[in-house]
Amino acid sequence: MACAMTCPGLAIFLLRAEGDRGYITLPYEFLPTPVVGQQVTALNREGRPLGEGKVMRILPPKRNDGTALVTIEVPEKWLLEARAIKVGE
Question: Which CATH class is domain 2-86?
Fold first, then answer.
């Protein structure tokens, strides 16, 4: 996961499928950082909402100016579509 934390352009995503669930680990550079268990909106590459996802894990940045990694759980059918999250409203 170290490569995803340092990649310029936030271009690396880690994907994992388990049954009908998908897990996407994506770089997240906004504040506030979501918390484990929080419901977020999964967004596609165009920024359009796909639906609700759940934050499963947070890897904080190693430096103050670094990138956090957020793992979300979504329906497996969104695994190749979801590329960002929206926190709160």
Answer: mainly beta
Q: How far apart are CA 21 and CA 73, in angstroms?
A: 7
Instruction: Give the CB-side neighbour count of residue 61, counting CA atoms within 13 A.
Output: 14
pTM: 0.86
The torsion angle over the Cα atoms of residues 4, 38, 87 and 66, rounded to 10 degrees, is: -30
Long-range contacts of 41-45 (CB under 8 A, 24+ apart): 41/85, 41/86, 42/72, 42/74, 42/78, 42/82, 42/84, 42/85, 43/82, 43/83, 43/84, 43/85, 43/86, 44/81, 44/82, 44/83, 45/81, 45/83
Give the pLDDT score at 2. 60
Q: What is the pLDDT of residues 40-73, one digit of tens each?
A: 999 999 999 999 999 999 998 877 667 889 999 9
Distance CA 39, CA 42 (A): 9
